[in-house]
Amino acid sequence: MMHGALENITQAVGNTPIVKLNRVTEGLASEIYVKCEFLNPGGSHKDRLAANLLRRAEEQGLRPGGTIIEATSGNTGASLALLAAVRGYKCIFVMPDKMSQEKIANLRAFGAKVIVCPTAVEPDDPRSYYVVSRKLAEETPNSFYANQYHNPANPEAHYLSSAPEIWAQTNGDFGAFVAGMGTGGTISGCGKYFKEKNPKIQIVGVDPVGSLYYDFVKTGRVTKAFSYKVEGIGEDFFPSTMNLKILDEIVRVDDKECFLMTRDLTRLEGLFVGGSGGAAVAGAIKYARGLTKPMKILVFLCDAGQKYVSKIFNDEWMRENGFFDDDPGHGIVRDMMGWRDKQKLVSVRANAKVREVIDLLKSQAISQIPVVEGGKLLGIVSEVSLLRCLVKGEKTLDSSIDDLMESDYATVTPDTKIDLLKGVLEGAPVAIVAEDGVPVGIVTKIDLIDYVARAEKSVARENRPSSHCVA
Ligand SMILES: Cc1ncc(COP(=O)(O)O)c(C=O)c1O
Question: What is the rounded average pLDDT of the residues 417-445?
Fold first, then answer.
């Protein structure tokens, strides 16, 4: 064996550097440091997961020649494919169709089989990538279903590998740990370790607008998820690998913030990371701005930028999707709220009476009303649910509405693009607009139609030839 050489490439997993951010954090009192997981040989933090999953699978009897099957959005596949190549396993990966072509090609380069499934179906639909992968695992002999969304070996990987490594590198000299959340393996495993070492360390999750996590943590409600572009973080269901109780804080970011920060990290800091890295840093900066005392913040950067050159790093794609300020499209929800009504959001408290709510719905000519307590959104009450329980005799006009609250809404921020609202309102009857978790408005389909129609009319008026024109 040559002096200084590794036995094989899998031994190069881990020992990634921690680097200080300098330019994107200009003017910030807190210091932000990043853990460069994108420098792992398989291109992401999922190398650590793959190593631990295989260790556990081999303990349970999986032998070389067997098949590894996984529902993966790419990175876990890349890491499993790398380990499988070295250890002599076959791989089949099932992934949703919103994933980049580069990620699919990357897996096929390792000789893996890739099956692409539609994104726009419910997780329990027979076409969903979760269901297809589970069925394949049942039908393939000598196979191992990695099942990263429900395998305790996932958070365990970060508890045993990422977190102790960070602790040894830093001597625990940080006040907050910030990470994006997909399966939740990273934040749950690292969070557990850091809390055991020092319970004062703040565990901060970053969630994209459209995912379920944020609303659930803030309000306990399972609201309507909707699609977004950033890959690897956010979910439309709750994986059992995600321990939301470990979080001290959750921060929400939208696609545009994620992608502009991803590009800045590359151009200003030399860190060629993927969109979830931009998301995590954008979230960390938001978190830092809300602190009363400066802190050292450690951010986990998951994957590398190469896979996103045709998207995030492609100006045309960024412009087409409205992520540049020079293309406002129909504008943002804040513009719409300013146009629509300057009055305060009409809401009720959880102990309001059915009679009171009916009167409000009638006087305001609305069909649903948010329930807000101490500035926090608790749910909504709709005329449909009031009608149902009155007709069935389950409630009287003097009953309180507290158990009539529903989660049949999506939440957006004032900065959400109006062009995105169409998709949001296809899956939910209303969108509640919340700023830093505080509800400030409500948007229905007819509001959106009305706003877009007015905008079209005013463009048509501006383009109409003046009567003074000479033909
Ligand atoms: C690019 C990227 N970022 C972040 C994550 C989230 O990591 P975790 O699943 O450990 O929560 C993933 C996971 O799929 C990912 O692929």
Answer: 87
**Rounded CA separation 385/392 (Å):** 11
Q: What's the rounded Cα separation, in Å, for the pair 291 and 25?
A: 14
Residue listed under structure tokens 């719409």 = 336
Ligand 1: which residue has its CA nearest to atom 15?
A: 232
Q: Are 39 and 68 within 8 A, CB to CB?
A: no
CB-based contacts of 30, cutoff 8 Å, min separation 6: 288, 291, 294, 295, 296, 297
What does the CA dihedral 350, 353, 359, 365 come to, rounded to 10 degrees?
A: 30
Could you report the per-residue pLDDT of 274-332, keeping only the tens digit for each? 999 999 999 999 999 999 999 999 999 999 999 899 999 999 999 988 898 766 677 88
Q: Is 166 in the pocket of ligand 1 (CB under 6 A)?
A: no
Residues 6 or more apart whose Cβ sits within 8 Å of residue 16: 35, 36, 37, 39, 40, 165
- The domains spanning 46-145 and 333-456 adopt the same CATH topology: no
302 CB under 6 A from ligand 1?
yes
Residue with structure tokens 């009916």?
A: 358
Rounded CA-CA distance 321/65 in Å is 44
**pLDDT tens digit string along 35-88?**
999 999 999 999 999 999 999 999 988 998 999 999 886 899 999 999 999 999
How far, in Å, from the CA of 469 to the mean position of ligand 1? 59
Pick from 140, 177, 227: nearest CA to 34: 177
Spatial distance between the Cα atoms of 388 and 396, rounded to a whole number of angstroms = 12
As a whole number of angstroms, the distance between CA 373 and CA 150 comes to 34
Q: Tell me the CATH architecture of domain 46-145.
A: 3-Layer(aba) Sandwich (3.40)
Among 320, 305, 239, residue whose Cα is nearest residue 270: 305
Give me the CATH topology for the region 11-42+153-320: Rossmann fold (3.40.50)
Show me where the domains of the chain are located. 11-42+153-320, 46-145, 333-456
Does the beta carbon of 332 sit less than 6 angstroms from any atom of ligand 1? no
Catalytic residues: 46
Q: Is the pLDDT reported for residue 462 higher than 70?
A: no
Q: What is the pLDDT of residues 377-410, one digit of tens each?
A: 889 999 888 988 888 888 889 999 988 898 889 9
Q: Chain-wide mean pLDDT for the chain?
A: 91
Look at residues 35, 32, 72, 70 and name the one whose alpha carbon lies nearest to residue 54.
70
Long-range CB pairs of 156-159 (<8 Å, 24+ gap) are 156/52, 156/189, 157/48, 157/49, 157/51, 157/52, 157/53, 157/185, 157/189, 158/45, 158/48, 158/49, 158/185, 158/186, 158/188, 158/189, 158/190, 158/193, 159/189, 159/190, 159/192, 159/193
Rounded to whole angstroms, how far apart are CA atoms 96 and 128?
8
CATH architecture of the region 333-456: Roll (3.10)
